[in-house]
Batch of 3 targets.
Target 1
Amino acid sequence: MGIACYFQKNIGYILVVVMTFFFVACSSSSSLPQDASFDKAVFVSLTGNGNFEIFVLTGTNGEAAQLTDNPAMDWFPALSPDGTQIAFVSDRVGDDEIYVMDIDGTTQLNLTNNPGRYSGTTWSPDGTQIAFVSYHNGNYDIYIMNSDGSDLTNVTNSPANEYQVSWSPDGSQFAFYADGDNTKHTEIYTMNIDGTNVTRLTNNNAEETEPNWSPDGTKIAFTSKRDGNKEIYVMNVDGTDQVNLSNHKADDFNPVWSPDGKHIFFGSGRSSWSGIINSERYPSYLMNVDGSEQTRLPYHSWFEDICCLPINPSN
């Protein structure tokens, strides 16, 4: 069994199967810092039947339970703020649709009923709405709908391609990246959830991707190639004070905040056991929010040689 890990490249979501370690699968003898722990996390695994299925892990050192089991691909899971539901993308009807299910895998419902390309599901902080990226009418746009699938709205509706929505903790804004403004690469933006007040935060001749809002709403972590390789950066929500946190020759990507905002999980192309960069393995790492104490997370025997990048920690 292998794990499917998410990262974005250029214009579009790419799902890549890599060999690494998923941070929620730490052994009991080598746990996460107490303030970086969580109650639940969801992830995607390539199972023995050759399909991507969704799993949930309860507790930092708990056991993983498989939630979906069908011939289709189930991926892009997002855990609701109250931990009771999971939104996800599935092509079980022949094309992508967005579904929601209970945390135990029951009551799987199709919310969109509109075949297309879907990805990047994320819940509003109050759990009443779901935002996502969809490809319709020739480009990727950001959409929003109620958590029961009603009131579907194209928020961006622009000729540019927008990707990976991160909802601000106060529920008023989105962070995302896009290929607009006549650039040949993607940049990080914010906007109100109704599509107004679009603000460009980065301005570099390089790919800027994977924005992730901090739990306290004051910072945005993101991935940048401005230094020639992918690095984890953090900035204020107005785009000021952009700082390279990872600062390593290998690619570092997909930053995810710990629930208390004191740590950042990320995937990396660095290979600590051999001391060289290895493009075929992507261990997960943990660091303090100032970039210090970058630590590769330990293997668990059950997850040896399989893994996933950190997805959707929730406390």
Target 2
Amino acid sequence: MSNATARTIRENPQASASKIEAMARCDPDAALQHPNCPVELWWALAANHGMEAPSSPAGQLFLLEAPERWAVLERENIQRWISMAWQILRKTQRYMLVAECAERVLPLYEREFPGDTRIREAINALRQWRLGIETQDGYRLEQAWLSSKCTAEAAAKEAALSSDSPAQGPSYSTADKITTSGQYAARDAAFVLCYDDSEEALHVAARAMGHAKHAERQRSAPAMFWDAQDDDPRKIEFMAAKFAEAKWQWMRIQQYRKEEPA
């Protein structure tokens, strides 16, 4: 399709479904934003455009008509949307969001380790570094962050050992270990900062929320392991809490993207 033809379709609000579908093959963004975008084409395009789809002209109507369908689409694609958007965020934005995620799960760590301020201090050091990175104090703030990060990593490894799981990361393979959901939540909460500005930090924070939800009933409840059946109420509850945290992360990523200069 030539640029002139595509422009004619974009500028015609009454363009036919077949023409919009043809344009979608070369310019899916334009097809998504077309006010006369066919409903099924819109849903297919929305799966790859989680940020733009809801505010598109046709999308606003489609979401009103089928909010439950959007809920399913979001659940199926939110991790992919996060991954795609994560690559676009600036480095400071990624670090600041990691700090936010770590702060949200910080109470899960401090509940198990009251009086231990190492993770909290590392979060503060990270924020101060990224906010002051371009100032004359940038180098000093970076060194303070690196020092705090080492201290936080030590706290994370100690939390992993106390929960009877390997210090190098999560282990859900052996259900015979005496390990509580509260301890797992604390361990994951402590590990968030260890991933720097990697997307993995967000996954670990969301997993911590899942364990915390399971621990709400009874703090010493045995941890939920991955060999549980999908219809196990504990696993359903765990996955729901994890998804809820991913939705919050996705919301914050969108807000960071909107802060970008035009």
Target 3
Amino acid sequence: MIGGPSTSSDAACAAQPAAQPVARSAVAPCAQHGGNGTGQLVGNATGPAASPAGAAGSQTLGAAGAQAAGPWPAAAGPFSVDGEALLAWRRRMLALGGTAAELDWLLDLAGGLRWRRLQELHLRPERPVPLEQPLAALELLWRRHRASAEPLQYLVGRCPWRDLELAVAPGVLIPRQETEQLVDLALELRPPRSPGALHWADLGTGSGCLAVALGLALPAERGFAVEASGEALAQAALNLERCGLVGRITLLHSNWWAALEPWWGKLDLVVSNPPYIPSGLLSGLEPVVRDHEPALALDGGPDGLEAVRAIVALAPQALAPGGVVVLEHHHDQSAAVLDLLAAAGLEQPQAHRDLEGVLRFASARRQVQP
């Protein structure tokens, strides 16, 4: 459910567009980007996310970089604006507040102006710029975001994540960048099975981001995506449909393990990004999160571990012999989560660091031979 922040403090847990948006495909909402999953969304604990490329959103390309990018493309959308006018508009919008990273993300995802082309524009402002929406429409979105702190991802209706572009809407947590690593861990730790014999599940699927990623990575395997929220389940269904995964992943409406009971003892790989923010910290979250993203996906109870306990308690029954569970958790919960996994009788409890060195994930296995 929740993709937490990527720094050592989770007090604000904001989902902010990264400074250098990933190049998008115009083919389909679930188009794969072909990147390595960086530079898309960051859940930042204290404010706007830092770009994986540094302060790219405020820099310009050198002449060599602009030349290497090739000729300016033919108009990709029905609207065209003078380059100097666009740069002046951008300055006016930034004067209203917010960051260049956010505004450039909006220009990319809603306006169709790729980040690299925007950087070239600083060198050749006389060129006309093709846009998918008029500046007036983009300005309305930006002003609404600034006035209400509504996430840009909700306003645009989609967000890049990993090498995908997923549909998002109010009622579903916005996928965070660090949660991408949960997919890599799961694929690395999954037990060996013959093709078509592995069963996996995503508990608290939210937008379906983990389920989509696993479904695409494991096309021959049976998958389940479980979600308690009807709103989130509908969004997950939309993303599965757009990604061609209907029929390969079963959506189940329930809390955690309940709807999976017919498959207990047969699940080889289970992943979850449950709500893990302690209740007392919710009021201190960034307004973009606190006031708009679903509390069901954020609130982990008094110590943030209520959902983790529910998942770990039944893991020994639900996992297949040798099956593995992989969890994301709060930055300071690693020791507690490992203790819970060990107390449940699971083997090989292990902590895993995120890309910033924070102990963000935990895994454990069911004993092969009882």
